[in-house]
């Protein structure tokens, strides 16, 4: 058996499925997906057995959008031809599915190596058997390349064997320009985007190359007569390229990428891919001792997070399901900036920068949206595809099967503050002044300009933001949502800080930027006034933020009375009653507490969490992670651990809803956030990091790896001795504050702070 076909032996590094459940096969395609930030390949079985129970593989290409339905005009992420398809015939009879066959199948996601492996035994109608081992990967070192290896052993000699390797779904909705034996080029119906795929296949039997018996465009077939103990190995390399303009030639790029891979050979492709994954793990590893389930959940989360980003492409971002499925049409939400960017900022700043450059490239679309709605500045699309235009559908089918109006595209405006928040966090975490001057400042200023025109002064000189949707999407067309208004105020204040910084440190840059934006001192003074007078809903007497104006007068519903329900609470109560109640869909004020804890004076953080957590129905996969971060920071580590486990169960436990539309990448980012910003208690400051660790009782230790301002830092928190060990592995000396005590870190020593 080739080493490449042997999975990692450590169970903490693998996700395994033994047996086969056809009803869950589409969900398995998401869970076992492989991705490199450009190509995403769902982890369904490549061997085609026939019958309706077979789930087809899908390959998604980042940024490959088309608008096939002109009536709706909504761009969707397009699936490419299925390059993994294989069919095996024994004595002229295909492999068939039989009851009980599934027990001989095993599917393994090798997270350490970023590879999907399978081991199986199949029979044809005459009970002739074949043993199969497969390997699939999307190269992390050469993102255009994907690899398939299939090793097969026919159990009997003297059997006529036919192996067919083909590409399915060549009519995938894209328009073909040319389809040759080993090269295809397609273009999108509604844009200049083009796709090219090149392929190279070979079959070796007992180590000798065997020429194909029949060939046609993207179809190869071999026929031979077996002998006992004979081993065949199919090797398939494919290269996939995307071009966004008519003058770019994706075919040449595909040929070139495939040529490089062929020079390496499949073993060289595997070696380079494994080395790239080893590097990513060194930079992002999180190790938990004492809780095997949490360790596997974090590894699963980091596997998908590391496979979702592409630092080499500034024109794409990470969709709500990454590249593991096409729910939400492959659109980008606030999920990326709030739930994913912190991971990339602190483990992969090159990827974080590229993701924020996507928001810069779509800034003109955000400006156009704000102008259409009568405001200044930049209002980002709630759902974004490739060019920044608003892509949220206007209507959808509700849980009761009725058509409902979707108002998020017009009213869920906190997205602009969310993007600004991510820009500031990136600069805080990296010190990338070039990004701030060239890109970040413009985003911060234009989003602040939007909020300063959006918040209107009314009676008593207070500014209000009316007619919005906050993170709690159960309540629409509301006024003065606390999350929106406080984030808007924060956005304006950070923009003013950046204006002052540029004026002082880079006056020529400020002069150029302010001149280009026609931004004058009188407008900045207006921004200060708005930030001072904006309504936040905070009551200093009770310490509570009112989620929005009138929220406290709504019906109180005890969600504990509905414990054990299997559907969202708005389905149980009905849409109208839910809107008239205090039931919250997902973290709203609690999300504000997670992002801007300094906005909660004294013990008001505890007060607000205690008030809103029982009112949350967690109707979004994003919600529990935010509650987990806050609970951990407030010292309720066992509640935080429950939120952690419930979040991990969304994609890893079969007791939850099917995930055939893709993994919940923001929820996976949330697991890392709970561990690092919750249990480790990390927070970012201008010139230092601080920690306030609070581990769950079951966790013996937690070790994290971080990158901060060109430094690499490894931290280990031990429960038994209540100690923090910090190692600066690379970079200039730095300051780390642990529970209020200062540690000076250098590369020559590893200080340990103990309270034991």
Describe the structure.
This protein has 756 residues and is of the alpha+beta class. The protein folds into 3 domains: 281 residues, Beta-galactosidase, Chain A, domain 5; 395 residues, Glycosyltransferase, CATH 1.50.10; 77 residues, Maltose phosphorylase, domain 3. Helices cover 33% and strands 24% of the residues. It contains 19 helices and 34 strands. The strands form 7 sheets. The protein has a 15-stranded antiparallel β-sheet that branches. Strands 20-29-30-31-34 form a 5-stranded antiparallel β-sheet. The chain has a 4-stranded antiparallel β-sheet with strand order 2-3-4-5, with no helix packed on it. Helix 3 packs across helix 18 and helix 9 crosses helix 10. The longest helix is centred in the middle third of the chain and has 35 residues. The two termini are 51 Å apart. About 1% of the residues have low confidence.
Radius of gyration: 27 Å
What is the tally of helical segments?
Answer: 19
The CATH architecture of the largest domain would be: Alpha/alpha barrel
Main sheet: strands, sense, barrel: 15 strands, antiparallel
Beta strand %: 15-25%
The count of DSSP E runs of length 2 or more, i.e. the number of strands, is 34
Large-scale geometry: globular
CATH class of the largest domain: Mainly Alpha
What would the average pLDDT be, to the nearest integer? 93
EC number: 2.4.1.230
Protein name: Kojibiose phosphorylase
InterPro entries: 6-hairpin_glycosidase_sf, 6hp_glycosidase-like_sf, Gal_mutarotase_sf_dom, GH65_N, Glyco_hydro_65_C, Glyco_hydro_65_M, Glyco_hydro_65_N, Malt_Pase/Glycosyl_Hdrlase
Pfam family, one: Glyco_hydro_65C
């Amino acid at each position: 058996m080739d080493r490449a076909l042997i999975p990692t032996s450590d169970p903490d590094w693998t996700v395994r499925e033994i047996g086969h459940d056809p009803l869950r096969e589409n969900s398995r395609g998401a869970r076992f997906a492989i991705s490199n930030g450009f190509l995403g390949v769902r982890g369904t079985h490549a061997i085609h057995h026939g019958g309706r129970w077979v789930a087809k593989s899908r390959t998604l290409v980042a940024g490959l959008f088309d608008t096939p339905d002109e009536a709706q005009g909504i761009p969707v992420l397009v699936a490419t031809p299925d390059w993994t398809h294989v069919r095996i015939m024994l004595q002229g009879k295909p492999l068939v599915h039989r009851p009980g066959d599934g027990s001989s199948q095993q599917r393994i996601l090798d997270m350490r190596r970023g590879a999907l492996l399978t081991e199986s035994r199949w029979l044809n109608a005459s009970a002739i058997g074949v043993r199969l081992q497969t390997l699939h990967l999307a190269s992390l070192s050469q993102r255009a390349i994907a690899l398939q290896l299939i090793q097969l052993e026919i159990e009997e000699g003297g059997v006529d064997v036919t192996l067919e390797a083909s590409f399915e779904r060549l009519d995938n909705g894209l328009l073909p320009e040319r389809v040759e034996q080993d090269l295809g080029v397609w273009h999108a119906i509604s844009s200049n985007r083009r796709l090219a795929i090149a392929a190279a296949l070979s079959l070796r039997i007992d180590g000798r190359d065997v020429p194909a018996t029949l060939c046609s465009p993207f179809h190869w077939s071999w026929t031979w007569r077996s002998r006992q103990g004979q081993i065949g190995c199919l090797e398939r390399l494919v290269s996939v390229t995307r071009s966004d303009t008519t003058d770019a030639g994706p075919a040449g790029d595909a040929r070139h990428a495939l040529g490089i891979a062929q020079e390496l050979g499949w073993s060289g492709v595997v070696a380079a891919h494994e080395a790239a994954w080893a590097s990513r793990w060194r930079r992002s590893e999180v190790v938990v001792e004492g809780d095997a389930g949490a360790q596997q959940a974090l590894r699963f989360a980091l596997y998908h997070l590391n496979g979702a980003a592409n630092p080499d492409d500034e024109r794409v971002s990470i969709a709500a399901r990454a590249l593991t499925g096409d729910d939400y049409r492959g659109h980008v939400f606030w999920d990326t900036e709030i739930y994913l960017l912190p991971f990339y900022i602190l483990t992969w700043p090159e990827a974080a920068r590229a993701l924020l450059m996507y928001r810069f490239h779509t800034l003109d679309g955000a400006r156009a949206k704000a102008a259409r709605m009568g405001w200044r500045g930049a209002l980002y699309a709630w759902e974004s595809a490739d060019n920044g235009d608003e892509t949220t559908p206007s209507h959808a089918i509700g849980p009761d099967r009725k058509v409902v109006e979707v108002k998020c595209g017009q009213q869920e405006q906190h997205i602009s503050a969310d993007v600004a928040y991510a820009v500031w966090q990136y600069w805080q975490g990296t010190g990338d002044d070039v990004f701030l001057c060239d890109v970040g400042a413009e985003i911060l200023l234009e989003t602040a300009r939007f909020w300063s025109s959006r918040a209107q002064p009314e009676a008593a000189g207070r500014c209000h933001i009316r007619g919005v949707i906050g993170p709690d999407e159960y309540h629409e067309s509301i006024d003065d949502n606390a999350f929106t208004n406080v984030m808007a105020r924060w956005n304006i204040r950070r923009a003013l800080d950046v204006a002052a910084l540029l004026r002082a440190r880079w006056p020529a840059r400020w002069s150029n930027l302010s001149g280009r934006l026609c931004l004058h001192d009188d407008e900045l003074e207006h921004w200060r006034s708005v930030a001072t007078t904006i309504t936040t809903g905070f009551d200093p007497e009770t310490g509570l933020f009112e989620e929005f104006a009138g929220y406290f007068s709504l019906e109180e519903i005890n969600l504990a009375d509905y414990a054990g329900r299997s559907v969202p609470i708005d389905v149980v109560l009905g849409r109208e009653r839910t809107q008239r109640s205090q039931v919250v869909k997902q973290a709203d004020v609690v999300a504000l507490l997670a992002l801007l804890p300094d906005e909660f004076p004294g013990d008001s953080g505890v007060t607000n969490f205690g008030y809103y957590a029982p009112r949350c129905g967690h109707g979004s996969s994003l919600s529990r992670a935010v509650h987990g971060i806050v609970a951990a920071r407030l010292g309720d580590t066992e509640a935080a651990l429950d939120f952690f486990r419930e979040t991990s169960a969304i994609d890893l436990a079969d007791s939850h809803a099917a995930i055939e539309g893709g993994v919940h990448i923001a929820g996976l980012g949330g697991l890392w956030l709970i561990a690092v910003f919750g249990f480790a208690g990390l927070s970012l400051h201008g010139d230092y990091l601080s920690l306030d660790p609070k581990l769950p009782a079951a966790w013996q230790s937690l070790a994290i790896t971080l990158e901060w301002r060109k430094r690499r830092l490894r931290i280990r928190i031990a429960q038994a001795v209540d100690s923090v060990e910090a190692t600066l592995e690379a970079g200039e000396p730095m300051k780390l504050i642990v529970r209020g005590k200062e540690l000076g870190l250098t590369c020559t020593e590893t200080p340990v702070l103990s309270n034991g």
